[in-house]
Each structure stands twice: as structure tokens, then as C-alpha cells.
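$ run holo --ligand "acetamide" --emit C-alpha cells
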Amino acid sequence: MIFRRLIAGLLMTLVAIASLAQDSKADYRVVPLPERIDGIKSADFRLTEQCVVNYPMGNRDMERNAAMLSQYVEELTGIHLSTRPCKDPKSSVSPADRNGNISLLIDPKEGNDEGYSIQVTPKGVEISGKSPAGVFYGIQTLRKSLPVGNTQAIQLPAAQIVSSPRFSYRGMHLDCVRHFFSVETVKRYIDIMALHGMNRLHWHLTDDQGWRVEIKKYPRLTEVGGWRNGTTLGHNSPVNDGIRYGGYYTQEEIRDIVRYAAERYITIIPEIDMPGHMVAALTAYPELGCTGGPYEVWTLWGVTDDILCVGKDHTLQFVKDVLDEVMQLFPCEYIHIGGDESPRVRWQECPLCQQRIRDIGISAEGKQSAEARLQGWFTTQIQEYLAQHGKRIIGWDELLDCNVDITATIMSWRGAEPGARGANLGHDVIMTPVDPLYFDYYQTSKTWNEPTAFGGCNTLKKVYDFEPVASDLPADKRRHILGVQANVWTEYITCEPQVQYQVLPRMAALAEVQWLQPELKDYQNFKSRLPHLVDIYKRYNWTYRAKSLVLEDEDQPKK
Ligand code: ACM
Ligand code: ZN
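-- output --
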């Protein structure tokens, strides 16, 4: 009898030891890599269902942060953590409450608005930031450090982790015109951005091939402009699939998406592209064009000569009316007004546009034609109107060629040179050069097994190696480089898995460009940290390009 008890006891001890050994360990070397990870000589913290996530009572943002941390931990590990509002005299979380738990804290002493620190000791975990956004980025780091897979307990090594982003603008773009994506898909895109520490979604909502934002004053924009009679097959072939295609977001859906993004500290910047890329609007309201039409929502890709007629006062009023509703929907500081790829042949032939040129007294100057300066005048009208409402404009780098005001923020897409030129002139700049930051481009030179892409070859390594600040940019101009963004045009991207395939894992490389100081970047080290991030992609069933995880020819140093 005693012998049997002894055996049973021994077995139980062995099981306990085995389960302890099975406790999986967190690894803080995530993507983007925190600026500093200092190990502390001390025992680990043991994360189990007994732990609570504390947050300061009465702080709604921190309450949501706590709920999200709990959700993330459960999604990745199966461990359920409850959340708890706490109050102490400094309206923080008292030491007694912190003991054995995870505490989210606002600390005004933290340096950067979006920076965070994580302190792990055997007694507890503290995630602090100057702002709730900073705490959220700390939460993302803790989330990404967790081993993926259901477990009972996780060992968090004792450490002090500190980080803050290099750039304040850390963007992704999504074109929902060339192909239309559901509210759920856009929300998942936002989830993916949050995991990568990004904070700006540039949402391309109008173009030649469709108008995707409900405007109550002009219902035909979506009723007529939201639909096209088929889509070209292949790379702009004359063959059309003949399938009516379209859709749009109601204002209610847009408000829902804007709120969803804001809860993840992501600001949505809408793009209403003008005066070019407007054929969907012209089809709905042909009087807005120079010729009066008829127009047809475009079934091809590319650049068309039909643009807004800015000789008509009615056109300016239309644009202001549209922007009135757009400003109501998007509470951000910026509205993106496009300005790219705007041929001026219609303006050259239009008596009203020519009359406008005479009325405002402009003429060709240097390399700028009178019509180029007319685009500058039109842009300034819109810029001043938005400024009256406390908003600023972002436009594509073509704006540098038409004499716009210095307060316009420039998005450098035709390479990095326009960005440097804009910053030298004193414009704020966001770097999104086609090479390497167009994620609708191929990810390899071996394209035969790849889904059809626009062209080009923007490998993971090229994205990683991109340096947004030109080495010869004078020190006093460097602050004009607000940040970095990758663009996803969807001519050839028809569904959500394909969107995800194009951006993952390139977003991981971009996140390090956006967060890390140049001296901390190391591609091989990044690639050693990538598989764990990909385990998280897998857990969420996101599609990604697996081949980018192995060493590709493109990664090899040139002989
Ligand atoms: C652009 O790619 N046309 C900005
Ligand atoms: Zn005209």
C-alpha cells in the first residue's frame, strides 16, 4: 500500500516537473525589434490564467487596451486573462494590485508620445507609455513575444524593454477602387497594421474605375459612379470580362471603420483624387468635365485625358460639397487630394479653362505650362477651403511641378528624389517610392509562380534596406520627412488573400524601416526573427508569401 502511494506520488511529481518544463518561454526579440532589451538577473514571471490585467480606473482608452491585451493573449495561447480597473492615490495602479499581475500604466515621464517601456520581474509585468497609444505598442510587443499555441503557462524572462518609433507617420495604403473590399476585409487590414505598429491608413476611395464613398448631396456618385461594365482581362488587354463590378461604403460603414481604426491608434486618411482620376464622377455628373461627355466608368487601367473642368465654378463648388461630407466622416488632420497623373490636353482645348487662365492672370513660367499652373491654382483653392476647416492637404509629388503652397504635404511616389526635393523646399514629405514601396509589385524576379502583379520587383530585402532620409539632405530639412508608407494598388489584386499575400511579410520589413534607427537595422537578424511573426500570421489564418522566409537569390550579396 505504502509502496503504491509512493509510486503515485512520484508519478505526480514527474508530471508536475514535465508540465513546468513545458511552460513555453516568451522572446522579446520581435518585429519591429525594440530599441533596448536589457535582461534582469532574476527569476521569470509566470503568466497563467490567475493573472489579471490592471488598468487605471476611469481611463476608457486604457480599459480598451486591457481588453485587447486579454483578447490577444487568448487568441495566441488560449490563456484567458480577466481585466480590472484599479485606483490608487495617483490614479494609477497600487503596488499591491500590481503584484502577480500585468499592469498598464500612463507615465508622463516616458519620452516619446508613442514610446513604451515594459518591465518584467517575478512580481509582475508593467507596460507604461506617455499615452495610451504608447501602451498599445507595448502591448503589441508583449503579444508578439508570446509563444504561439495553446498552453497553461508562459515564462516571461525578467527584463526591461524600452522603445519608441523613429517616424511619426507609419503608413499603409489600400486602393478599394480598382477592386472593392468588404468592411470586414478593411478591418482585418487594420488588424494587420496594428500588429506591425503602424498608425496611418491611406484609403484610396475614388478613381476612374469607381467611386466608393457615399456622398448624400450627390447620390449618383455611387449609384452610377460606383459601378463599371466589366474589367479588362490580363494587363490592360482589349478583352473585357463583361461582368458588372462595383460597390461602395455607406457613410455609416465608413464611420464604423474609422472608429475601429481609431481604437487601434490608426488614423484613416481618405484620398479623393483630383483633378485627374475622376471618370467615375464624370460619368455620374458629365457637366463636371470639359467636353460634357458622355463618359463611362472606366473598364481599363491607366491614365485618361478626361479630368475635371476647373474653368467652371460649378466644379469647384462640387469638390467643396464633397469635401464637406468627407471632412465630417474623417476627423483626421489631413485629406489626401491626389493630384497625380493629370493630363492637361482637355484644359488646353477648353474655352472655359483657358478663360480661367486669363482671369487669374497666370501664364507659362520656366518649365511649368499655364495649364500646370492652373492645377496649382485649383489645388490652392481646395487647400485654402480645407484650411478654413482646420485641415491640411497631402498630394502626390506631381504637386511639386505646379507651384503649390509650401504647407502642402508631399507624397513622394515617382522615386525618392521628389521627396528630397520637396523637403529641401520646406514641404513636409511622406516617402512612398514605387521602388521599393509599391507592394502591388512582384516580390521576386522569378515571377512565373506568382499571382499576377503590376510588374517590378520589390523584394523583402529591398524593402528592408530602404532609407527614407537622403544622406545629403541638410540637417535642418530632415524633420520634414514625416515618415514612410507602402502602397497597394489593386488593379491585379482581386480578393483578400491576394491583398495579404502582397503585403506579408513585406509589412514586417517596412515596420523596421518605420520604427528602427538605421544603426539598429540588420537584415539577417530580422530574418531570424521573422518566422515567429509568421507563426502569428498562421494563427490568424492570414495569407503570406512563404518563399520570402527562405534565403532567396535576391538576398545573396552580389558576386
Ligand atoms: C500613383 O501611383 N499614381 C500615385
Ligand atoms: Zn475645362
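-- notes --
The radius of gyration is 26 Å.
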